[in-house]
Q: What sequence folds into this?
């Protein structure tokens, strides 16, 4: 199945990008709005996340309850999230309901109530999200690792802090909405059983009055130290290790992705085999490529016991360093099979594709089709990946641990 990627930029800067998937009976869209956590003022961390919560509490002629009820009547499944770069609103539905769902989201994005009388209810939701992070120790240590890997504000936790969330006011939410919910730099990704011409016309009519504006400036700060230990009374220790890599927009990204896939994809991967199976050091271990628009990293995690934490860290770092010695053909073939399987799954999901094409547009300024990605994977060879690894050895490692005791990190990391 070969798909066509269609795109249009409206006069106000809004980009509509779509992938018709006519064999489906569903459609989905993903909004990427330039209202990510990197635009939170330093004294208002969590503002984007708080605003995302308040935006969904009534819009246009709909109360908060009516907003939910009308979406459910259309059979819409929705989600919302805040990343460093964007606030995202996503929805999936029967294909015939996409125009009606877009009508509701036009109100959500352009005419939210932001009701002051529900501010404390919204704050309660934000508090609960922060408490959930405190309870999820693996997530907590990886958030610390991101703050070490990326300079402020790019390593932020989008939920902010308990202290900052308590101080956010209704006026600050209103100001943030007015400043960042703008069509310039906004992307609407749509996938599924759609008719392009009518979709483009409908979106153009819905958002014709949405006015662009300059976005708030971003001031880049410093990175945190190379090793941070978070004391926690626990029989478990959580370990995060990262080092710089290329972002998704870099031509070598898939070489890096192939190498990390050998390291971590599946139960035959090196980390799983060496750290968990052969040595029995941990209950979970993985590594992945993490990307921002202009920078990227490799991030690895392991969860283990206090007694085995030091050995787990040592073996993890040894495997990360050993990767630069090269990969083997049987490892690459297993990886290709797994990646192609994932691509096939994407062909069956309008939700996955709407998010992927919106993200592609943000990172690349164009969209890679599933067939194009498949061709890139086919072209990966041990020779090409090993050449990449030889020129991109792990360096400037950052380590974060959470548990009873701090660990010893090798010289040169901190």
A:
């Amino acid at each position: 199945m070969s798909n066509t990627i269609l795109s249009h930029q409206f006069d106000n800067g809004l980009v509509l990008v779509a992938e018709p998937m006519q064999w489906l009976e569903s459609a989905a869209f993903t909004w990427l709005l330039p209202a990510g956590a990197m635009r939170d003022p330093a004294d208002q961390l969590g503002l984007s996340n708080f605003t995302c919560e308040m935006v969904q509490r009534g819009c246009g002629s709909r109360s908060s309850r009516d907003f939910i009820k009308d979406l459910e009547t259309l059979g819409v499944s929705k989600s919302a999230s805040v990343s460093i770069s964007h606030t995202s609103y996503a929805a999936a539905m029967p294909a015939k309901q996409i125009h009606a769902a877009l009508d509701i989201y036009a109100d959500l994005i352009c005419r939210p109530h932001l009701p002051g009388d529900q501010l404390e209810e919204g704050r309660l939701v934000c508090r609960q999200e922060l408490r959930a992070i405190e309870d999820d120790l693996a997530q907590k240590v990886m958030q610390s690792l991101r703050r070490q890997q990326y300079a402020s504000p790019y390593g932020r936790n989008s939920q902010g802090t308990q202290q900052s969330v308590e101080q956010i006011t209704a006026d600050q939410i209103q100001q943030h909405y007015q400043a960042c919910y703008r069509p310039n730099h906004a992307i609407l990704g749509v996938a599924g059983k759609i008719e392009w011409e009518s979709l483009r016309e409908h979106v153009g009519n819905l958002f014709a009055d949405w006015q662009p504006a300059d976005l708030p400036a971003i001031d880049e700060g410093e990175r945190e130290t190379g090793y941070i230990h978070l004391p926690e009374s626990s029989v478990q220790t959580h370990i995060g290790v990262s080092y710089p890599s290329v972002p998704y927009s870099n031509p070598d990204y898939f070489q890096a992705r192939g190498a990390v896939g050998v390291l971590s994809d599946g139960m035959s991967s090196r980390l799983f085999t060496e750290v968990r199976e052969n040595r029995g050091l941990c209950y979970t271990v993985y590594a992945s490529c993490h990307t921002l628009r202009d920078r990227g990293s490799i991030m690895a995690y392991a969860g283990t016991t206090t007694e085995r934490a030091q050995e787990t860290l040592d073996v993890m770092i040894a495997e990360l360093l050993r990767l630069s010695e090269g990969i083997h053909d049987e490892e690459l073939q297993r990886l290709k099979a797994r990646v192609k399987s994932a691509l096939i799954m994407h062909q069956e999901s309008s939700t996955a594709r709407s998010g992927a094409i919106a993200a592609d547009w943000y990172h690349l300024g164009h969209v890679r089709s599933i067939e194009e990605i498949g061709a890139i994977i086919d072209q990966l060879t041990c020779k090409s990946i090993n050449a990449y690894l030889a020129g991109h050895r792990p360096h400037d490692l950052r380590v974060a641990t959470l548990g009873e005791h701090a660990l010893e990190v090798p010289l040169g990391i901190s």
